Amino acid sequence: MHFKKNFFFFVLLFSISVFAQKNFILKQVILEAPSLSPATLNQLQWIPGTDEFSYLEETESGINLVAEQIEAGNKKILTTLDDLNNSLAYAALDSATNFPRFSWHSSGEIWFWQKNKLVLFNIQKNKLFVLNEITEGGGNHDFIVPEKIAYTIDNNLFIADNSNQIKVTNDENSSIVNGKSVHRVEFGITKGTFWSPNSNYLAFYSKDETMVTDYPLVDVTQKPATLINNKSP
C-alpha cells in the first residue's frame, strides 16, 4: 500500500511538470530560435569573500561590470568600461575597445592583461597599478604571485621578475620546445610550467621533437593563405 501511494505521488508530480511546460510550434522554433535560447552572462564569476556574483552587461551607454546577490537579486554597477579606460589613460596605457578578460584578486580589485602588462584595477578607487611586464609577443604566462611570471616566446622559456626579463632556456633548435604543454593537451596536461607554492622554484616541460616529422598545414585565415610546418602527432 505504501508503494502504491509513493507511485501515485510520483505520477502526479510528473504529470504536473509535463503540463507546466510550454509547447512550441515548428514556426516558433525556427523563427524565434534566438529568443528561446537561455540567457548567457558574459564573464560570470563569484566575487571572493562575498555572496555576490559578477558579470558584464552591455547597454546603450556602454559595457558595465555588475554584481548581484544570490538571494536578494539586487543588481548594482561596480564599474564601467569608460571608467576603466579613464584609469588606463591616466596610467599612460592604451585604451581597451572591450572589457578585458579578468580575474578577481579581492572583493574590490580585479587583475587582467593589457597587452604585455599585468594590471591591477581597484574598482572602488578607480586606481590602476602595473604589477609586472613581460616581453611583447610572450604567451603561456603562468604565475602564483604577480612579481614572478613565467612565459614563453617561440620555443624558449622566460621569467619576468618584477619586469626584469630572465631567459631560462636558449634553444636555437625550434624542435626543442620549453614551457609548453605536451601531448597536444592530452592526459590532463594543460600547461607546461609549474611554480612551487612560494614561487621560489619553477618546473617546466622540455620536449625534444627533433625526430618528429614536420607536417605542413595551410593557414587559411591569412590572405593569401600561408603554409605552416607543424610536428606530426
Automatic annotation (TrEMBL):
Q: Name one GO biological process term.
A: proteolysis
**Span of domain Dipeptidylpeptidase IV N-terminal:** 147-224
List the InterPro entries: Peptidase_S9B_N (IPR002469)
Give the protein name, as stated in the record: Dipeptidylpeptidase IV N-terminal domain-containing protein
Organism per entry: marine sediment metagenome
